[in-house]
Amino acid sequence: MLHIVWDWNGTLFDDLHVIVGAVNAVLEDAGLPPITATEYRDGYTRPVKRFYENLYGRQIDADEWQNLDLVFHEAYRARIHAAGLRADAAAALDVIDAIGGTQSVLSMWRHGELIELVDELGIASRFVLVEGLRGPGGGFKAPHLGDHLAQLDHEWNDTVLIGDAIDDAHAALEHDCRVVLIDNGSHPRDALEEVGAPVATDLIEALGLAGLG
After folding, report:
1. What rounded mean pLDDT belongs to the chain?
2. For the chain, which residues make up each domain, given as ranges?
3. pLDDT for residue 102
4. Class for domain 3-15+84-212, per CATH?
Protein backbone atom coordinates (compact mmCIF):
# COMPACT_ATOMS: atom_id res chain seq x y z
CA MET A 1 0.00 0.00 0.00
CA LEU A 2 1.28 3.45 -0.89
CA HIS A 3 1.65 6.06 1.82
CA ILE A 4 2.23 9.76 1.23
CA VAL A 5 3.92 11.86 3.91
CA TRP A 6 2.99 15.46 3.21
CA ASP A 7 5.10 18.35 4.37
CA TRP A 8 2.86 21.17 5.59
CA ASN A 9 4.30 24.69 5.30
CA GLY A 10 4.84 25.59 1.67
CA THR A 11 3.48 22.24 0.47
CA LEU A 12 -0.12 21.56 1.47
CA PHE A 13 -0.40 24.91 3.24
CA ASP A 14 0.32 27.85 0.95
CA ASP A 15 1.96 30.22 3.43
CA LEU A 16 5.16 31.50 1.81
CA HIS A 17 3.90 35.10 1.95
CA VAL A 18 3.05 34.67 5.64
CA ILE A 19 6.48 33.25 6.40
CA VAL A 20 8.23 36.10 4.57
CA GLY A 21 6.10 38.61 6.49
CA ALA A 22 7.11 36.98 9.78
CA VAL A 23 10.79 36.98 8.79
CA ASN A 24 10.49 40.67 7.97
CA ALA A 25 9.00 41.28 11.42
CA VAL A 26 12.16 39.70 12.85
CA LEU A 27 14.36 41.88 10.66
CA GLU A 28 12.43 45.01 11.62
CA ASP A 29 12.84 44.12 15.28
CA ALA A 30 16.60 43.85 14.67
CA GLY A 31 16.72 47.16 12.78
CA LEU A 32 17.45 45.46 9.45
CA PRO A 33 15.82 46.00 6.02
CA PRO A 34 13.09 43.63 4.80
CA ILE A 35 13.60 40.93 2.18
CA THR A 36 11.44 39.82 -0.74
CA ALA A 37 9.98 36.37 -1.29
CA THR A 38 12.62 35.79 -3.96
CA GLU A 39 15.40 36.71 -1.53
CA TYR A 40 13.87 34.40 1.06
CA ARG A 41 13.75 31.47 -1.36
CA ASP A 42 17.30 32.11 -2.54
CA GLY A 43 18.67 32.25 1.00
CA TYR A 44 16.55 29.83 3.06
CA THR A 45 18.46 26.98 4.63
CA ARG A 46 18.55 24.71 7.66
CA PRO A 47 19.46 24.93 10.41
CA VAL A 48 17.33 28.07 10.40
CA LYS A 49 19.76 29.89 12.68
CA ARG A 50 22.27 29.85 9.82
CA PHE A 51 19.68 31.49 7.56
CA TYR A 52 19.22 34.34 10.02
CA GLU A 53 22.94 34.70 10.63
CA ASN A 54 23.38 35.14 6.90
CA LEU A 55 20.73 37.88 6.96
CA TYR A 56 22.23 39.53 10.05
CA GLY A 57 25.77 39.24 8.71
CA ARG A 58 26.99 37.91 12.05
CA GLN A 59 26.53 35.19 14.63
CA ILE A 60 23.42 35.14 16.83
CA ASP A 61 23.78 34.26 20.50
CA ALA A 62 21.37 32.12 22.52
CA ASP A 63 19.41 35.00 24.06
CA GLU A 64 19.03 36.76 20.73
CA TRP A 65 17.93 33.51 19.08
CA GLN A 66 15.26 33.00 21.73
CA ASN A 67 13.88 36.50 21.14
CA LEU A 68 14.09 36.08 17.36
CA ASP A 69 12.13 32.83 17.55
CA LEU A 70 9.47 34.49 19.71
CA VAL A 71 9.10 37.45 17.33
CA PHE A 72 8.82 35.15 14.30
CA HIS A 73 6.15 32.92 15.78
CA GLU A 74 4.08 35.80 17.10
CA ALA A 75 4.23 37.49 13.69
CA TYR A 76 3.38 34.24 11.91
CA ARG A 77 0.36 33.61 14.14
CA ALA A 78 -0.88 37.15 13.54
CA ARG A 79 -0.81 36.55 9.76
CA ILE A 80 -1.74 32.86 9.50
CA HIS A 81 -5.36 33.39 8.48
CA ALA A 82 -4.12 35.19 5.37
CA ALA A 83 -2.95 31.75 4.18
CA GLY A 84 -4.79 28.58 3.24
CA LEU A 85 -4.50 25.24 1.51
CA ARG A 86 -2.95 25.18 -1.94
CA ALA A 87 -5.51 25.41 -4.73
CA ASP A 88 -5.01 21.76 -5.70
CA ALA A 89 -4.60 20.37 -2.17
CA ALA A 90 -8.09 18.89 -1.90
CA ALA A 91 -7.78 17.28 -5.33
CA ALA A 92 -4.40 15.80 -4.41
CA LEU A 93 -5.76 14.33 -1.19
CA ASP A 94 -8.66 12.88 -3.20
CA VAL A 95 -6.23 11.08 -5.51
CA ILE A 96 -4.67 9.20 -2.59
CA ASP A 97 -8.06 8.29 -1.14
CA ALA A 98 -9.27 7.08 -4.54
CA ILE A 99 -6.43 4.57 -4.94
CA GLY A 100 -6.80 3.29 -1.39
CA GLY A 101 -3.54 4.81 -0.19
CA THR A 102 -2.94 6.45 3.14
CA GLN A 103 -1.46 9.82 3.99
CA SER A 104 0.00 11.75 6.89
CA VAL A 105 1.40 15.19 7.67
CA LEU A 106 4.85 15.87 9.10
CA SER A 107 5.60 19.51 9.81
CA MET A 108 8.27 21.55 11.56
CA TRP A 109 5.48 23.86 12.78
CA ARG A 110 4.56 23.47 16.44
CA HIS A 111 2.50 20.36 17.07
CA GLY A 112 -0.46 21.72 19.02
CA GLU A 113 -1.01 24.60 16.64
CA LEU A 114 -0.66 22.31 13.63
CA ILE A 115 -3.32 19.94 14.97
CA GLU A 116 -5.71 22.85 15.53
CA LEU A 117 -5.11 24.29 12.06
CA VAL A 118 -5.51 20.98 10.21
CA ASP A 119 -8.77 20.42 12.08
CA GLU A 120 -9.94 23.99 11.41
CA LEU A 121 -9.33 23.47 7.68
CA GLY A 122 -11.56 20.41 7.74
CA ILE A 123 -9.02 17.85 6.52
CA ALA A 124 -7.97 16.08 9.73
CA SER A 125 -9.91 12.93 8.82
CA ARG A 126 -7.79 12.50 5.69
CA PHE A 127 -4.67 11.58 7.63
CA VAL A 128 -3.66 8.58 9.68
CA LEU A 129 -1.13 10.73 11.53
CA VAL A 130 -0.52 14.48 11.88
CA GLU A 131 2.68 15.49 13.59
CA GLY A 132 4.36 18.80 14.21
CA LEU A 133 7.39 19.84 16.16
CA ARG A 134 7.25 19.02 19.87
CA GLY A 135 10.63 20.39 20.93
CA PRO A 136 12.95 23.28 20.02
CA GLY A 137 12.71 24.54 16.45
CA GLY A 138 15.22 25.35 13.77
CA GLY A 139 16.82 21.94 13.30
CA PHE A 140 16.77 19.32 10.57
CA LYS A 141 13.76 17.21 9.58
CA ALA A 142 15.51 13.83 9.32
CA PRO A 143 15.14 12.72 12.96
CA HIS A 144 11.47 13.72 12.97
CA LEU A 145 10.85 11.79 9.75
CA GLY A 146 12.45 8.72 11.31
CA ASP A 147 10.10 8.92 14.30
CA HIS A 148 7.15 9.54 11.99
CA LEU A 149 7.87 6.54 9.77
CA ALA A 150 8.34 4.30 12.79
CA GLN A 151 4.73 4.99 13.78
CA LEU A 152 3.32 4.05 10.37
CA ASP A 153 2.28 0.52 9.47
CA HIS A 154 4.02 0.61 6.08
CA GLU A 155 7.23 -0.48 4.49
CA TRP A 156 9.39 2.59 3.97
CA ASN A 157 9.97 1.81 0.29
CA ASP A 158 6.20 2.19 -0.22
CA THR A 159 6.31 5.69 1.20
CA VAL A 160 6.79 9.00 -0.64
CA LEU A 161 7.56 12.28 1.08
CA ILE A 162 6.26 15.34 -0.78
CA GLY A 163 7.79 18.61 0.37
CA ASP A 164 9.12 21.95 -0.76
CA ALA A 165 12.54 22.08 0.91
CA ILE A 166 15.99 20.70 0.30
CA ASP A 167 15.84 19.51 3.91
CA ASP A 168 12.86 17.30 2.96
CA ALA A 169 15.00 15.60 0.32
CA HIS A 170 17.89 15.08 2.72
CA ALA A 171 15.52 13.63 5.34
CA ALA A 172 13.99 11.22 2.83
CA LEU A 173 17.40 10.10 1.62
CA GLU A 174 18.53 9.39 5.17
CA HIS A 175 15.54 7.10 5.72
CA ASP A 176 15.43 5.38 2.30
CA CYS A 177 12.13 7.08 1.51
CA ARG A 178 11.19 8.31 -1.96
CA VAL A 179 10.72 12.06 -2.32
CA VAL A 180 9.16 14.55 -4.73
CA LEU A 181 9.78 18.27 -4.30
CA ILE A 182 7.52 21.25 -5.07
CA ASP A 183 9.26 24.20 -6.68
CA ASN A 184 6.99 27.05 -5.55
CA GLY A 185 7.77 26.89 -1.85
CA SER A 186 10.96 27.37 0.15
CA HIS A 187 13.50 27.22 -2.70
CA PRO A 188 13.78 28.09 -6.40
CA ARG A 189 13.56 25.22 -8.85
CA ASP A 190 17.24 25.21 -9.82
CA ALA A 191 18.27 24.71 -6.18
CA LEU A 192 15.82 21.80 -5.82
CA GLU A 193 16.98 20.18 -9.05
CA GLU A 194 20.55 20.13 -7.76
CA VAL A 195 19.41 17.67 -5.07
CA GLY A 196 18.55 15.11 -7.75
CA ALA A 197 14.95 14.45 -6.68
CA PRO A 198 11.96 14.84 -9.05
CA VAL A 199 10.61 18.41 -8.97
CA ALA A 200 6.97 19.34 -9.66
CA THR A 201 5.21 22.65 -10.14
CA ASP A 202 2.08 21.62 -8.22
CA LEU A 203 0.73 18.84 -6.02
CA ILE A 204 -1.06 16.92 -8.78
CA GLU A 205 2.12 16.82 -10.85
CA ALA A 206 3.99 15.72 -7.73
CA LEU A 207 1.71 12.72 -7.40
CA GLY A 208 2.32 11.92 -11.05
CA LEU A 209 6.05 11.99 -10.48
CA ALA A 210 5.48 9.68 -7.51
CA GLY A 211 3.94 7.16 -9.91
CA LEU A 212 0.28 7.99 -9.52
CA GLY A 213 -0.33 9.74 -12.82
Report:
1. 92
2. 3-15+84-212, 16-82
3. 93
4. alpha beta
